[in-house]
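quick one: NAP bound model?
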Amino acid sequence: MFKSGAATSLPVAFGMAVRLIVVGGGKMGSALVSGLISANWAEARELAVVEPDDGRREVLGAQHDGLVLFDSPPRDQLADDGGAVLAVKPEAAASACRSLQAAGINRVLSIVAGLATQRIESGLAEGSIVVRAMPNTPALIGAGVAAISGGTNARSIDLDWAESILAAVGKVVRLPERHLDAVTGLSGSGPAYFFLVAESMIEAGVSAGLTRDVSRTLVVETLLGSARLLAETGESPEELRSAVTSPGGTTAAGLRALEQRAVRSAFLEAVLTATERSRQLGH
Ligand SMILES: NC(=O)c1ccc[n+]([C@@H]2O[C@H](COP(=O)([O-])OP(=O)(O)OC[C@H]3O[C@@H](n4cnc5c(N)ncnc54)[C@H](OP(=O)(O)O)[C@@H]3O)[C@@H](O)[C@H]2O)c1
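yep, here:
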């Protein structure tokens, strides 16, 4: 094991068990660690990251003084009520589960896309507790939304534990696992849909004669402001849309062009097709 800031391996001091071991110090794993520390969920020294890449460990150690770093899951370093977050790519999940089993770790929150709780359970020790989550990329800046589902042995205390972790990087909803493919198609893939909308609108602004920089600023702020209006007023999208649509006005003309090109049905197809794709990949 490696302690951040130390040039050589150091033994963990007796009694210094960590509360959470994040397996995979990539984009999501490191965003979680930063979120947990800034939300005061834990201090850096109460968190460990398992990351095989020396360079990544070095970066993480430099970012969080005291963070405990390992190149494989440690035995006997986890507090009794602790657990691990599985934050590796799907193709690395089976071997990461085997190493968790070897380390005697049997409470796991998995954020691995498309990997069913049953598959994770079968890679861990008999009776292990698994909570599966489907987060999304805005989690990287603490503005994500995730759905969580408990596996066979997950109790409500385990869902509370998982929710408390993911709440450090965004909002959390609880759903039966059968809905996670729909969550993947909606909020998992959703940022990409909005990026496509942003890209198209920026290009449209350029076509209408604005510079790319100005067009980008106008589009990004419009997206942000519209999202905040939706979230903060609690009004429905229809109400907010009609409030800016005066009869025979410019917005009505723009909306008519979108309706003529079946934008609603394009979004419907996008979400349903992505949901189906998630189902296929999970089997
Ligand atoms: N990014 C997102 O917004 C997002 C959204 C929803 C779900 N997810 C899910 O989150 C998971 C992580 O995604 P990510 O974007 O954070 O991926 P990532 O940046 O590639 O991070 C994965 C990290 O895990 C390390 N790793 C590989 N094998 C390992 C092992 N056996 N034990 C410990 N660490 C290991 C990798 O190291 P090496 O590079 O050396 O292999 C890498 O640093 C994925 O399953 C993805 O489906 C991500």
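The chain has two domains: 2-180, 190-281.
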